[in-house]
Amino acid sequence: MLDFGGITSAGSAWESRLFSVASEKMVGDKQPSTNSPLTATITLSILEDAEQALSGRAGGALEDNMSVTPIGGRLHDELRRKVTTASLREQKLRHEPITCLTAYDYATARLVDEAGIEMILVGDSLAQTMLGYENTLSVTVDEMLHHVKAVRRAVKNALLLADMPYGSYQIDSEDALRNATRFVKEGGAEVVKIEGGEKRADLIRRIIDAEIPVAGHIGLTPQSVNVMGGYKVQGKNLSGIEHLMRDAVALDRAGVACIVLEGIPREVAAMITAEVGTPTIGIGAGPECDGQVLVIHDLVNLTFAPAAKFVRRYGDAAGVISQAVQGFRADVKSLQYPSDEESYHLPKETKAGLDMVLARKRAMQR
Ligand code: KIV
Description:
Blueprint: E1 2-4, E2 7-9, H1 37-41, H2 44-49, H3 51-54, H4 85-93, E3 98-102, H5 106-114, E4 119-122, H6 126-129, H7 141-154, E5 159-163, H8 173-185, E6 191-195, H9 201-209, E7 214-219, H10 225-228, H11 238-254, E8 258-262, H12 266-275, E9 280-283, E10 291-294, H13 296-299, H14 317-333, H15 348-365
Parallel strand pairs: 3-4, 3-10, 4-5, 5-6, 6-7, 7-8, 8-9, 9-10
Antiparallel strand pairs: 1-2
Helix pairs in contact: 5-7, 9-11, 11-12
Bound molecules: 3-methyl-2-oxobutanoic acid (KIV).
């Protein structure tokens, strides 16, 4: 979460279930449960009588379209090249802007990947956007991995980056290496992101030596919120600028795949971008960066808070979701949903058999 003078990015209470899909398939050939009203009124002998009429026709296979996110059916995958750390450098050389968005779940990651975004970051901002934490400090490696794995299953072309959360690389380099390896081995991440500049250079070299590409992240680094004394734009004075330049050069020399520049003046980001061969990806760092990243919840208005200065809203998911939910509620309450067209029906023969069973039952009761 970024908070520039009370303006917050990536709001705190994202309802993860809003994007979840119905995971239970409806099964057409399910037997009536023993405590269902239907079973209670039909005796076993009558059921046996009707067996012939009902045989093989009660229910059947799953219907074609069920309420789960369809797997497969991608149209344009073959036409797009897989993004790699090398292709990012080529983009920088060609002055072709690089796009990056966060994603934390399967459905969103698929949409982002299929839209042709080059980099997808499972950011530790999921602490706020997905888990409702106050800041990024409490999210754990296991929580991050849970989301990285979901995103991995969705992403085909984009380069997949995972944030190393606070505490997963600060203790010692063995621990950092072990955690970075988990993101690659268990999560399927292609790059891990670490906050901090010069002081992380040796650690970053070690991780790269272990064949794991690393993304740097300097400027406003949210994991340092307590040291910074809040979410403050960095590099606003000469010593701050010098500090940032040293950080950027150290990361460049360490061989990072890209450098996220967060919350720094446009002029400083431009200087850094011109100075280093590594692609710079800005967030609140102006247009001269080699690429831009935003938190997807900021982009689509799912933050429950006013947007930061640098955020441009490209959609109103909160509005769309609220309207849909209210519509559903109103329709159910007024018995408008589901309609007959939205209901399954018995096959003709089964219906006839069932009518026969019910008629006999009624006759027996008289
Ligand atoms: O966690 C995150 O979402 C990030 C981006 C803001 C770059 O680090």
